[in-house]
Amino acid sequence: MGVRINAADAACRLAYYAGWVARFARKKFLLLTLWLLVFPAVAQQLAPEQPTEFDAISVTATREARTTKEVPQSISVVDEKRIEDVRMFNIKDAIQGQVPGLRIESNNNAYDAKISIRGAGLKAQFGVREINLLRDGVPILDPDSFGRLDFVDPDDVERIEVTRGPGDLYSAGTAGGTIHIISRSAFDDRHNVIRGGVGNWGTHNLHTRFGKVFDEHALAFTFSRRHTDNDWRRHNRFASTNAGLKHGWQLGESTLLESEVTYSDVKMNLPGSLNSEQYARYRDTGKALETQDPWKHSARDSRILFVNSRLEHRMGAWLFKPRIYYNQWKQFHPVTGQINDMNGWERNFGLDLEGNYTHSLFGMPGSMVIGGTWRRNWSDSALQYAYADVVTANGRIVSTLSDRKGQLNSRSHFTNDLWGIYFLESLSPIDRLTIDLQMRFDQVSFDIERDEFQRYNFAAGRYAPGRGLLQVKENYDLFAPKAAVTYRATDQINVYATVAHANQVPDSGEVQNAIEFGRTLKSSGHLNYEAGFKGRGRNWSFDLTGYHTDVSNEIISFVQNFQTLYVNAGKTNKNGFEFFGNYAFDSGVEVGASYTYTDLKFGKLTEPLTIIGPGGQRTTINADRSGNQIPRFPEHMYFVYTTYRHPSGWHGRVETRGQSDYFIDNANTEQRGGYHFLTNLTAGYSRKHWGVMFNIQNLFDKRYAVDVNKDAAGTRTSFTPGMPRTFMGYVSYKF
Known about the structure:
It is a single chain. The chain is mainly beta. Helices cover 9% and strands 57% of the residues. The chain is globular and about 75 Å long. The chain is built from six helices and 43 strands. It folds into two domains: 1-46; 47-734, Maltoporin, Chain A (Beta Barrel), CATH 2.40.170.20.
């Protein structure tokens, strides 16, 4: 879907946005908004003459190396210091709370993280949707936008960059933002280490890294093993083994080639949800040994091979950065009614050709990024089986007894292709002003053939004859233009404003789901207006952002007759305010905080609702949800932390976070899910080569819900309990 904005339309948009900002300020942040209006002038007078040092380099949003202050978009960089302060058993440990506007929770302290940025990603039942995931520049999501974190070894992470909202030059078919996980270079021989850790709930962690530089060559080997029984919940075990080999080759001063191959073997149980009575027992005891779901043996076991090779070659004013990658995986994935088992490898192959050019245009200094990308995801035979061992009552399956495969339900062949081109031009017409103009166009195509012999009938609660051959061929054209302005108000303060558009492509499962129920899914369009301030000083920083997003054809999910269905909502509106700031004292103490206000509403939505009348007669009506809040994302979130580092080697960190209640259904009948002062504590000591660290998650052992959801009919409420108090101790030796 293209974007055509004429002058009158642009003026109307700007007037609307200005009106919304005024209303927003009156309602919630009047004093803060007045402060924003006068702050640049005040800062010009009060800012000390000192260099800006408290900043990080980002390579994600613009594909150029820029400080985060110079990026005209909401971006957070979780740096090496933050990563060293947490246990890094998974990616959640690094970014939870640290990134405003982002909500990440895990069922089992593993890579099964539910991630949502400004409400995007809420409908994911597993994996990550609507958010771009990158590992060292390589998409670890399929062309249909489905991603997952089992590709990532958390112990081999140098930093994590998170952009929020549309406008990221890396993103293709995702509108929520990007999480870019950057691992350590083969040339980094400063972090050779052996580290081991143990904790409660049967948890242990072992990691080693050895790297060495040989003149122009470098080699690095990593190995990690993580395991937890997680026996505070039923069927909640997790184990992973990751091994990787990296090679770097410095070919003179102008060329660098880095390649890597990694292998991961991951086994993860997926515990079911709780009903209200079971959740109450968890609140009383701290354990959740039950589930209301019949499918008591859900899991996701994966074996993954990941290969990536990237080149950087400078030729005059050009920097060329081609990349080629290949990964393949097998999975065993029992879920609701089906056991997914790959009869062979699912494969993903791609290449990206990028060039950066520094130039001058009409006397204005500038830079250009231009490139193209292509990738293909395919599987020759994806199989689904029925559960062999089940308990029935009145013809319904009420419980599984194992994850043993029964009758073959379906066989699928599919190919997902993506190709795209992108362009960014940055100009500085005057010394303090930078203008960014960018465009990205991608096309995603689905070619799916599925032969269904048997299916699980959600309404009847049992297996039924299949629907035969289903063929899907869909193409989506995705446009992502962006215009942004950055103004350096002082040496420490930048002001920026941006308008960006992006399309969110449905994933292949959503497309099949819609076709099975006589619907078609369109890609959703996200038009985002954003403005903010970024400040960086010698020992302080802050980011302050306000945004408004108009979404057309939002892809939403709802539960009906125990089955998740996907439809396009007519319109949704997303408004928000995000703040992050920190200050480092000369004494070694650093304090910081983030706050997020989010207002997500359906502009127009009708939800199919099945009503069961006397005698079991079913009637379907379309319930109007227009104007309601989008469920399952809190209006308010906060995060506060304090760290301390002493020259002797002692260090510690205390952080706490919370969120408000949120509506748990589209009808907005009930609010739940809030919690406050969920606190983590870390203390450690480092001396020369040795280090020890002790970490406690959920220090006060709060009993809370990670997620609460109610079905469309209002008859079933599902709770996902949060982790109880969890502690781990680590010993490390650097060499």
